Amino acid sequence: MIQFFKFVFIVFLTFLSSSGIAQTRIDWINLADVSFEEKQMEDVELTYNHATFGESLKALAGQEVSITGYMIPMDPMGITFVLSRNPNATCFFCGGAGPETVLQIKVKPGKFKRYSVDDRLTFKGILRMHEKDIDSLTYVLEDAEEL
């Protein structure tokens, strides 16, 4: 009988690890493994910050991760969000904070809800990193959902 319960327990653990429940937990320190260099776009008169990611960070690209931060709605309708290392109430981009301290949230379809400024929340999703995309932040969490 004990062997049966051991078997069921092992099958249960195997299911959990392969079912997508387990994701890599990251912190803002992980996202700080980046450097920026100002560059000129060839086709237009525009400069941008070109990101160079560290090896440990590159390994997380395209992986499901979870991270905790402060919600900051970025538009008056409250449908575009950024997760920040720092709360908005303390000026989330002040005091030496850079592009690596914010993460664009693209909520999974059907999981959208309204959030308030400075709600401290944990999200999971697929981590995307952009070296020079001027249409999004350096870090984007796609198919994100609140944990």
Architecture (CATH level 2) name: Beta Barrel
**Annotated CATH topology:** OB fold (Dihydrolipoamide Acetyltransferase, E2P)
Report low-confidence residues grouped into runs of 5 or more.
Answer: 3-20
C-alpha end-to-end distance: 36 Å
- The helix content is 10-25%
| Structural domain count | 1
User: Can you summarize the main beta sheet?
Assistant: 5 strands, mixed, barrel
Total count of helical runs of at least 4 residues: 3
- CATH class equals Mainly Beta
Average of per-residue pLDDT values: 81
Task: Write up this protein.
It is a single chain. The chain has one domain: Beta Barrel (OB fold (Dihydrolipoamide Acetyltransferase, E2P)). It has helices spanning 2-18, 28-31, 55-58; strands spanning 24-25, 34-40, 47-53, 64-73, 81-84, 102-107, 120-129, 139-146. 17% of the residues lie in helices and 37% in strands. Residues 3-20 have low confidence and may be disordered. It is built from 3 helices and 8 strands, in the order αβαββαβββββ. It has 147 residues and is an alpha+beta fold. The two termini are 36 Å apart.
